[in-house]
Amino acid sequence: MTTTTTPAAKAPRRIPGPQLPGLVSGVTLVLGCGLVVLSLHGDYGTPTGFDAPWNDRIAGLAAAALGLVRVMRKTTLLAATTLGAVLGIWLLTAPMLVDYGFGVESTLATGADVVAGVAIASLSVLGHLHAGDSTASSGGAEATRDRARSRPGENRRDRIGARRHG
Fold it and tell me: Per the UniProt record, which residue ranges are transmembrane (predicted)?
């Protein structure tokens, strides 16, 4: 028994080079885990109440969860971008809002939060812009929806003709 594959049944061709959506998810996940580990083992100075270590643990867990949700594709792009941007901006401003202090003891916490915040926020926004560009260059949302509905042995022109005449 021989099987034939139709062009529609083939796996989609991947563009060579880095894939930005996977990069955004992976970096968000790694930075979140890094913040948690750093907050547990880094020298953050003398802890006082809700301060840098607790902020980094909670924000790190949130970033890791966002990265996992993005990897599993269990969220919309807009929601993931919004959460990533908000989380990144929080990490960027937390050293001033939570008052880490600006001494030698807070340098590690401040530096880690600023780097993670800038990376998460900017990659989230760039990932969203990249997805918008790839949708626009592939014919927009309607073409993407049509490709998702395609059946083996049927091409897009046949479906469009069937809609107009049917």
Answer: 20-40, 52-69, 76-98, 110-129
Q: What integer pLDDT is reported at residue 148 of this predicted model?
A: 47
Domain membership of residue 76 (yes or no) is: yes
Q: Return the pLDDT at 141.
A: 45
pLDDT band at 77 (very low <50, low <70, confident <90, very high): confident
Is the whole model's pTM more than 0.90, yes or no?
A: no
pLDDT for residue 117 = 94
Could you give the angle at which helices 77-97 and 52-72 cross, rounded to 10 degrees?
A: 170
Decide if 36 is inside a domain.
yes
Structure-block tokens of residue 140: 């927009």
Identity at 13, one-letter amino acid code: R
**Start-to-end C-alpha separation, the chain:** 36
The count of domains in the chain is 1
Give the residue numbers spanning the domain of 85.
Answer: 20-42+50-150
